[in-house]
């Protein structure tokens, strides 16, 4: 065997050099710096979209409830009437929501008002990211209908 050939094979199998590792780490850091802010910024957008989707599902469930029972749930029944037959109505054909009554993406219950203050029939809203009702970031049925 030739001594020069053995030396090259041994050198090639040693692994990566420090410079190669640094280049890979720098490339990964640049990618993380570009991608992470975009993903983090989308979290709030996703929560707002989820709340709007929940409210749209409530609107559909309310219409089905009204078709079955003849009226929307009153203020005392609230949205619980979509999940369980509170009044023991023989016309109730629920539950009207597949997953039960969800909380909004910020962990607060959705607010149901009957009769509605902003719409003719009822209002459903989420307090939004700030957790305070009546502020600009609220997600509402009258804004999403």
Describe this structure in words.
By secondary structure, this protein is mainly alpha-helical. The chain has a domain at 50-144: Glycoprotein, Type 4 Pilin. It has three helices and three strands, in the order ααβββα. The protein has helices spanning 3-12, 18-69, 141-144; strands at residues 111-113, 123-126, 139-140. It has a three-stranded antiparallel sheet. It is elongated, with a radius of gyration of 28 Å. The mean pLDDT is 83.
Task: List the SSEs and their pairings.
Elements lengths: L2 H10 L5 H52 L41 E3 L9 E4 L12 E2 H4 L1
Antiparallel strand pairs: 1-2, 2-3
Characteristics:
6% strand, mainly alpha, 3 helices, Glycoprotein, Type 4 Pilin, 46% helix, 3-stranded antiparallel β-sheet, single chain, 145 residues
| Oligomer state of the chains in this structure | single chain
Using the alpha-carbon principal axes, give the shape.
elongated
Give the termini distance in whole angstroms.
82 Å
Architecture of the domain at 50-144, according to CATH?
Answer: 2-Layer Sandwich
Structural class: mainly alpha
As a percent range, the share of helical residues equals 40-55%
Q: How large a portion of the residues is in β-strands, by DSSP E?
A: 5-15%
- Most strands sheet: 3 strands, antiparallel
Uncertain stretches: none
Q: Numbering strands along the chain, what is their spatial order in the largest sheet? A: 1-2-3
Give the H and E element order.
HHEEEH
Mean pLDDT: 83
Number of strands: 3
What integer value in Å does the Rg equal? Answer: 28 Å
Write the CATH fold name of the domain at 50-144: Glycoprotein, Type 4 Pilin
Classified in CATH, the superfamily of the domain at 50-144 is: Glycoprotein, Type 4 Pilin
Query: In the CATH hierarchy, what is the class of the domain at 50-144?
Result: Alpha Beta
Count the helices. How many?
3
């Amino acid at each position: 065997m030739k001594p020069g050939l053995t030396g090259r094979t041994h050198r090639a199998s040693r692994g990566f050099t420090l410079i190669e590792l640094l280049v890979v780490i720098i490339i990964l850091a640049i990618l993380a710096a570009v991608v992470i802010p975009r993903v983090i910024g989308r979290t709030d957008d996703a929560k707002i979209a989820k709340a709007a989707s929940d409210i749209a599902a409530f609107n559909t469930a309310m219409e089905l409830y009204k078709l079955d029972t003849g009226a929307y749930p009153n203020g005392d029944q609230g949205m619980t009437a979509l999940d369980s037959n509170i009044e023991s109505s023989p016309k109730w054909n629920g539950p009207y929501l597949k997953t039960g009554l969800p909380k909004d993406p910020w962990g607060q219950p959705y607010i149901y008002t009957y009769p509605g203050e902003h719409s003719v029939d009822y209002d459903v809203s989420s307090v939004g990211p700030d957790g305070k009702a009546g502020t600009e970031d609220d997600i509402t049925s009258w804004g999403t209908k």
